Amino acid sequence: MLEETIAAIRPADARALADARAHQDRLTKPPGSLGVLEEVAVRLAGAAGVSPPPMPVPAALAIFAADHGVHAQGVSPWPQEVTQQMVANFVAGGAVANAFAAQTGATVTVVDVGVAADLAPAPSLLVMKAGYGTADLSAGPAMGVPQAVQAVESGISVARSLVEGGARCLITGDMGIANTTASAALISAFTGKDAALVTGRGTGIDDETHTRKVAVVRRALSVNRLGEPLETLAGVGGFEHAALAGFILGGAAAGVPVILDGVIAGAAALVAQALAPAVADHCVAGHRSAEPGHAAALEHLGLRPLVDLELRLGEGTGGLLAHPLVCAAVRVMHEVATFDSAGVTEKSG
Ligand SMILES: Cc1cc2ncn([C@H]3O[C@H](COP(=O)(O)O)[C@@H](O)[C@H]3O)c2cc1C
Ligand SMILES: O=C(O)c1cccnc1
Fold this sequence. Notes:
By secondary structure, the protein is of the alpha/beta class.
């Protein structure tokens, strides 16, 4: 399933890109006046292979939840059980992600890919466990490569079934106490940036905890074999990173744009990009998180974030906030008159 998905991902279509740029310049506005939004619409045209690209509605958020053995190293101030408690909150509709999803009309699907407990069944909860939390990545591999592949394929199948159900835009979400530690390790491994530069304060840690977190990330990078993308993922990643990488690949393979959330999605997108370099053509960076590793990941992916509101929450919140902007960018391509059709005189010279 993974190989087939990778093989189905096409780079941006040059003809659709050129058509979209030309169309932007015929619309009744000074060329370039919509700034970054013009580039967003052009990117979506390239990804879809047609200009104008389809409207990215309806949108579907998938929140991948998992626990982390590295939590035992004291890298997060929050107890591990907050992961499962927040899953219950998502399915009850009580989290920030639910409020933002309602605001933009996105559906919310929660996927247990490795929470360290059995959760109460709920209609919006999919159980696709690759394990009950990862092993401590600072002591050895977080998971086996077969487990990583299983979680990646879970993400692919969630993307596929959301698209089969009518979704025309996928938004990434995550929940997993201590997952900013695994994110920093993945980002350091894939970008080559030093652990100290990409390790942030997650949910809010003091200086002493931050120093310990950087040391934990360094240890993770030295005790694990970092080679093939899946080996690196299995060594220092989390089950939600693996599933998110699959979700991103699955959306791209299905021809549907994927709006990335924050640092966890950024780390997962690096895995996806290492497996299928063209995948970034199908992604939109929803926002830039306050986590320093996120900017490093986006730079490596060649993506420019749409929103910068100092968010540091995850769950998909930054991706959800960007969705109306992406919709507006595409709507312009469908609905704005051209100079010819509206009888507006173009600039001279
Ligand atoms: C109540 C609560 C809700 C959250 N929603 C997302 N996160 C975010 O914070 C966690 C990562 O930060 P760290 O690595 O510092 O533990 C992840 O679960 C992420 O999704 C939350 C964290 C908390 C505490
Ligand atoms: O960038 C994020 O998405 C993020 C930052 C801090 C904690 N959780 C998530």
